[in-house]
Design brief:
The chain has one domain: Metal-dependent hydrolases (TIM Barrel, Alpha-Beta Barrel). The strands form two sheets. Strands 1, 2, 3, 4, 5 and 6 form a six-stranded parallel beta sheet that branches. Strands 7-8-9 form a three-stranded parallel beta sheet. It has helices spanning 9-15, 20-24, 27-42, 47-55, 80-88, 103-119, 130-138, 158-165, 195-207, 218-227, 251-259, 270-273, 281-295, 316-325, 346-356, 361-379, and strands spanning 59-60, 93-98, 124-126, 142-148, 168-172, 210-212, 233-237, 263-266, 300-302. The chain has 16 helices and nine strands.
Length: 399
């Protein structure tokens, strides 16, 4: 769900005039600080859970750093309380991915949030190679993968390589609507991947950029999996077999994804988890169970689709506008976050739930991040230096 600066381009057009936006700029540090203190008091974990999380590489494959509608959210410094929240979360890698609608917006996002990470380099480390992820964890830093939840930033297939060189490591082919590449999940008709989309998929494979189909429609998803010679990702979705929602993936898509070696991240967005109450972290694990039984534990991971605080901590007016913008098929209920997966240390609760389901330590480590690390290592390519153009010889000078 998350988009540019915490809200997709379409949502920003709806929310851009809200008077509360300016006030929200100063809220995160105060809210996060209180929440972290409350989290310390409300949650306790066994030594087994703590040890398992701390020795695992934990990747949240859809986790914007900040859900904040203020257009200048990236310009504010990270407070000590926010830094402590990130460090205490147990998550080592955040895929900071949002939705944009143009080339210029894609560039602006990369510039803005890369600079944010640079100004807060004591906490964050931008990554471009999988070895950078390992290095960040070894040095107790939060690794940040830059991504986009659309591909409208690509004016031509040639733009893919340029964006990869600027740090973009993952791009979703569509958001929920039709674009030049394919159809989104809430479109009435899904025509599949277009001829132009074939060229974008080829260019992403050539560059080493991970293809994401989380918001794509059913046919577009299947086409992309089939067309890509390399494994691709569903970074944040759930299983339609358990919850009949258009944003979720069919068993056919999950099987085809796994046959190519891909990985599916399970999300904690409430209406994607279950269509009725109660909706708890145990229901999230049901989706993990389903993927494991269908295709094996090697093909499932985590993509929470929220920042550390989640959607339900947003200011009320923005929260209601956000929910009102989407089509009725999104089926929002009173809350967006799932019980037990709605606080900064949610990965510890998820680990405890997986232990209760009798998953082995090694399988839990695959789910928490090992599977996505493998996929990134197989996908990302080393940048090649382009030699400068040679000067043309003009031949002998005439006397």
């Amino acid at each position: 769900m998350s988009g540019f600066r915490g809200v997709s381009w379409e949502r920003r057009r709806v929310l851009g005039t809200l008077g509360a936006a300016a006030a929200w700029a100063s809220m995160p540090s105060r809210v996060f600080s209180k929440a972290l203190s409350a989290d310390d008091a409300a949650h306790s974990y066994s030594r087994k859970v703590v040890d398992l999380v701390q020795r695992s590489l934990v990747i949240d494959m859809l986790a914007p750093l900040k859900l904040d509608f203020n257009p200048d959210a990236y310009s504010f410094p990270l407070s000590d309380a926010d830094a402590a929240m990130f460090r205490a979360s147990g998550i080592n890698v955040f895929h900071n991915s949002v939705g944009v609608a143009s080339y210029d917006e894609g560039l602006q996002f990369l510039l803005a949030w890369s600079a944010y990470c640079g100004r807060n380099a004591d906490v964050f480390s931008l990554v471009g190679r999988v070895e950078d992820i390992d290095h960040a964890k070894a040095n107790r830093k939060i690794a940040v993968i830059m991504g986009l939840q659309n591909a409208d930033e690509f004016r031509t297939a040639g733009d893919v390589k340029d964006f990869y060189e600027m740090g973009l490591r993952c791009a979703q082919l569509t958001y929920n609507s039709q674009n030049l590449i394919g159809s989104g999940s809430t479109e009435r008709v899904d025509g599949g991947v277009s001829d132009y989309g074939v060229k974008i998929i080829e260019a992403m494979n050539d560059a080493g950029m991970l293809i994401d189909v989380s918001h794509c429609g059913d046919k577009t998803t299947l086409d992309a999996i089939d067309l890509s010679p390399r494994a691709i990702a569903i970074t944040h979705s759930n299983c339609r077999a358990l919850n009949n929602h258009p944003r979720l993936k069919t068993d056919e898509a999950i099987r085809n994804l796994a046959k190519k070696g891909g990985v599916m991240g399970i999300t904690g967005v409430r209406q994607f988890v279950k269509d009725r109450e109660p909706t708890t972290i145990e229901d999230i694990v049901d989706h993990i169970d389903h993927v494991v039984k269908l295709v094996g534990v090697e093909h499932v991971g985590i993509g929470s689709d929220a920042d550390l605080m989640g959607y339900d901590h947003m200011p009320k007016d923005q929260y209601e506008k956000l929910k009102a913008f989407y089509k009725a098929s999104y089926a929002f209920r009173e809350r967006i976050d799932t019980d037990g997966f709605d606080h900064p240390r949610k990965v510890y609760d998820l680990t405890a739930a997986l232990i209760r389901r009798k998953y082995s330590d090694s399988d839990i480590q695959l789910i928490l991040g090992g599977n996505f690390r493998r996929l990134l290592a197989q996908t990302w390519k080393e940048l090649k230096h382009t030699p400068p153009p040679q000067e043309k010889t003009t031949g002998e000078k005439k006397s």
